[in-house]
Structure formats: structure tokens, C-alpha cells
Amino acid sequence: NAGLASITDVMAVQGLSMWKKHCSRSGVRGDIEEGYFEEISNNNIGNVWRRLLSQKPLSKDTVDENLLIAAEAWAMGRAVPQDDPVYVFGSDVDAEALADEALRRWVKAFFL
Fold first, then answer.
1. In terms of Cα–Cα distance, which of 69, 61, 75, 64 is closest to 11?
2. Is 20 in a helix, a strand, or coil?
3. For 13-108, where are the E strands, in sequence order?
4. Chain centroid to CA 53: how far?
5. Three-class SS string for 86-104?
6. How far apart are CA 38 and CA 13, in angstroms?
7. Over the stretch 56-99, which tens digit does the pLDDT of each residue have?
8. CB of 72 closer than 8 Å to CB of 51
9. Pairwise CA distance, residues 25 & 51, whole Å
10. What is the DSSP annotation of 12-40?
11. How far is 99 from 76, CA to CA, in rounded Å?
């Protein structure tokens, strides 16, 4: 049924996105063009959705597992695998690990 979404086509999330109002690149497409988001290839969409849908309702008992699942889904959808870690300037701190920890703390502070 072209044009009709079923329950398996959507996921409810809590969040907020803001876009520039008056510019040539706005909305989600603009954010993709600016490099803030990546499109997932059609070959990966089903696997990413299935992984995301395995999350449980968010609670203090499920937050760590849900974030792990989200990270796995993110890696599945990534266009180019990231082999070499990127480090925080002037340190041996892995930038991805630091971002993951910041996200974990942010989710716990604002969603639980």
C-alpha cells in the first residue's frame, strides 16, 4: 500500500529537532546535505529497524541495554565502517567512547 504507514514503519521517540527557517538547506534533507545525518542504504534499513525495535521501554533498568542496541544499530547503518578510533585533541581518550558516555549521562539526566 504505497503511501500508507503501518505500525512496523514507525517508532515513537521523544526528542526535538530544530532547523534553520530561511535558508537553502533546511529540514532533514538539509541536515543530511550538511553532514549532520546520514542516509541508510536500502539494504540496511530492515536490519537497523529490527535492531532498534528490540529495545525495551526506557527505565533505569533498561537504559544501558537500550543505548547499546542504539549504538549497534548506528554501526549497522553507518555508510563507511570506522576502523581507526578518533581521539580527543591532545589526549588518548577515544572520542566515540566519550560521546557514548555523554549520551548515557544525558539520557539518564533528562529521560529518567
1. 69
2. coil
3. none
4. 13
5. CECCCCCCEHHHHHHHHHH
6. 18
7. 988 999 999 999 999 899 888 876 666 778 888 889 988 888 98
8. yes
9. 31
10. ---------SSSSS-HHHHHHHTTSS-PP
11. 18
